[in-house]
Amino acid sequence: MKKRSVAAGAAAALIGLVGAPTVSNYAGNLFLTITSDAFYIPRQSTMVRFRPTVMNGGSGEWWLYGEDARYFYAMSDYDHFSYLYLPRDKIAAGINPLDKATWGEGTGVDWVGR
User: Fold this and answer.
1) Residue 70 and which of 22, 33, 42, 51 are 20 to 30 A apart at CA?
2) Residue 13's domain spans which residues?
3) Rounded to an integer, what distance in angstroms lies between the CA atom of residue 19 and that of residue 77?
4) Percent of residues, the chain, with pLDDT higher than 70
């Protein structure tokens, strides 16, 4: 029994050192996906890559802004199951990834409704 707990501790430490960002994204996203009816991963991303950057400040557990290696995401004003996404390679001067009002037309921003 003691050998198992030592092995489990060593494995956890190794994962923590090597894959902490990936594991933490996955673990957090998995937890919120299971426990919240309002949390979801955008279609363009994955459970491992998506990282919520701003969460709803109220009692709901959904993201307002998020990102991954390819896109920035923002919840639409329509409902929390619709979102905007902006390719990272379209970021120009004056665009703030945490302010969807600056994204504007012609920047590559697209909208997804669920």
Assistant:
1) 33
2) 2-112
3) 35
4) 76
